[in-house]
Amino acid sequence: MLPRSSRRSAEGEPLALAEPRSALTRALLAALGGVAIAASFLDFSLWPLAWVAFAPIIVAIRCARSKQEAAWIGLVAGVATNIPAFYWLVGTIHLFGGFPLWLSVVFYLALSLFSAAEFSLFAIAVRFTRLGPAAVYPALFWVVLEFLYPNLFPWRMANCQLEVPLLLQVGELTGPYGLSFVMIWTSTVGVASISSGLRSVRVALPLCAAAISSVILYGAIRLPAVDRAVLRAPAVRVGIVQGNLSIEQKGDVRFLEGNLAVYRDLSHRLAANADVVIWPESVITDPLPRTIRELWPEARAALRLEKPLITGALTYAGERDNPRFYNSVVLFDADGRVLGISDKQILMPFGEYLPLGSLFPGLKQFSPQTGDFEAGTAVVPLDVPGVGRFAPLNCYEDLRSPIARDAIHRGRAEILFAVANDAWFSDTPAPFQHEALALWRAVENRRFLVRVTNTGVTDVIDPAGRVQLRLPLFAPASIVAQVRPLHIETPYTRFGDWFAWLVTAIAATALLVSAGSPGRSARPILPRSPG
Fold first, then answer.
1. Which residues share a beta bridge with 330?
2. For strand 322-332 and strand 467-470, is the pairing parallel, antiparallel, or unpaired?
3. Residue 441 to residue 176: CA distance in whole angstroms
4. How many independent structural domains does the chain possess?
């Protein structure tokens, strides 16, 4: 008698594959899927892996003997994803927060377990409801978790697809969640096709194929349309400057004059050909009073302004001896007048504030470098006279879609730009992962996104999500880039995360329906293998 994995029905369709018998085998399957996800974020040329990475995880979940085992399988998958994909967080916590290395490792493991719990919730939901009509439930549940789960580094499965611009264009409708949905659905339908036989997936296969085809077709139609809109807009010449200053130079006010000299010299080389010059986050580390309206003569000389300048700077409110500090972006005109200030809204833990520091003041002794900054309340668009209306995204803010969307929808910004200091990431994949997450802001809102960082990645991303230029990492450099102010209002700009909310409602309904189904927990997930 043939093993069940190779037996066929009378109609010639394959029957269910033999399930993995041991808990260890199921855990290894989950780990395999997690490693595949991690690999697609460590090397973006491996993007096809992400389309099948959830398949072994779903097989392991379906074969779990209980909800408790399913939760553990999810945790294994989450750990296998997060620990290798974002290992650089250890160094970042150590350098950025000033924690001892051993404590940084402890924090990282705690963060990894917290992030891995997202997979546990996914596994419990899939084990509880099974795959659902057309094998769509896992895709629903994953999108809900991508949307609602509070990860410190808010990655989505769609973020690893940046090398395939054709697939990104659906972002102007759904944000990254539409592509993530199709990717997880593809893995799930593959599992259903192999394990359950073709008869049971005659609906799922064509529907999933239609979804993939729709994403590709939409991209093929929209890419040339976006390019035509870009060509019709007037050109703006933006000078971008990457100083490549060390962490010690950036963090010590004694280096301020030397730091400014680096940026002055790099800016002077391109000033004649630029309409506006942009420097990265917190180049000016000697705090400026927020009441400032014009630079004093010595400060104008230190900056050597030749064109309007947008730069990261520390600012303060209140008295100098009892200040409230802000991480700000400031716009100066060529005469030193302050035309606008926008404050960072999302402060970085372990650097700009200490989580739980107010409840446990003793923690601050382990992180003497951690600051105590105030958060801004909104992006303030910066109007550069005769050039355009720029929306500043400060560091982490280019990872959060609501901030960029609000700056365009309410603030009528024509160009997005981000300033950051990614030197904390050192020579790791982190700067490129940051870029991969940030470029969706360009697609969602059909705006150019200019990213100016201290050490890289400094780049220009067009409204289709394509990287137009990228300065070398860890090298001082400056260049004039041509961008174009746009006034397109996309469905995403106007309606935001409607797709994610719709999926959330459908997923909640699926859970409620499953909870009301009699005898569900007693039914096997997969047929037993022989023996």
1. 311, 341
2. unpaired
3. 10
4. 2
